[in-house]
Structure formats: structure tokens, C-alpha cells
UniProtKB/TrEMBL annotation:
It holds the Pfam family CCDC92. PANTHER family: COILED-COIL DOMAIN CONTAINING 92B, COILED-COIL DOMAIN-CONTAINING 74A. The lineage of its organism: Eukaryota, Metazoa, Chordata, Craniata, Vertebrata. This is Coiled-coil domain containing 92B. Residues 7-62 form the CCDC92/74 N-terminal domain.
Amino acid sequence: METVSLEHQIQSVQRHIAFLKKEQMELLHALHLEILRLQKHCSELTHDLEMKELEARQQGKSTALGTR
């Protein structure tokens, strides 16, 4: 009788481990997707900032040339 109970406990623990592994893989996948999304957003913001800085420099040059 004790052996059957122990076998059930082992099977239960194995199911729990399998469940946790599956949950961990899903969480890691979701985190990876979030990292990719944030990297893309960061790249877009960096590009926007660089374009604004370029426009500001060009406006500064044209203003400086216009006052001469």
C-alpha cells in the first residue's frame, strides 16, 4: 500500500514539474517577444530623435546663413 502511495506522489510531482516547465517556457517566450518589441520601439525613438536633431541643425544653419 505504501508503494502505491509513493508512486502516486512521484507521478504527481512529475506532472507538477512538467506543468512548471511548460509555464516557464511560455513565460520566457512572452518575455522574449516583449524584449523584441521594446528594442524596436527604442530604435524607432532613437531614429526620431536623430531626425529632429538633424532638422534642428539644418534650421540653425539656414537661420545663421539668412542673418549674414
